[in-house]
Amino acid sequence: MFMEREIMILKPKKIPLDISVSKKNGTSLEFICTAVPNEIVIDILYLYLEDGENAPFIPEMEENIRKAFQKYLEIRGIKPSIYNFLSECMSKKKSKSLFFYYY
Q1: How far, in Å, are 23, 49, 97 from residue 28 at the CA level?
Q2: pLDDT at 53 over 80
């Protein structure tokens, strides 16, 4: 007799993200972020210059600067809705893994 089994997958409360945006001349920004439902939180920002030097990270940004960088990321497709997409992908991957290991 076949019994149906439920697998409960919980969404993570937060998803860590490491986002790099580079220019052809070698200058780049690296955002260390956390995706939470309905928001991308920028935790740390690094600026890498074209000569290979990196500027100090910016752990404490003024709120208006932080919002400007969040808008910058949004324009490039990193939107708060990415949390739902990533958590769904992660849960599907976990459920497939559980399926193969469980049955």
Answers
A1: 6, 7, 36
A2: no
Cα-based distances in Å from 63 to 8, 17, 42: 38, 20, 11
Task: Report how far residue 70's alpha carbon sits from residue 58's, in angstroms, rounded to the nearest whole number.
Answer: 14
| pLDDT band at residue 71 under the 50/70/90 scheme | very high
Query: Among 86, 64, 74, which Cα is nearest to 31's?
Result: 74
Task: Assess whether pLDDT exceeds 70 at residue 3.
Answer: no
Q: Does residue 68 contact residue 75 with C-beta atoms inside 8 Å?
A: no
Can you tell me the distance from the alpha carbon of 86 to that of 83, in angstroms, rounded to the nearest whole number?
5
CA distance 10 to 97: 15
| Residue of 59, 64, 25, 55 lying closest to 43 (CA atoms) | 59
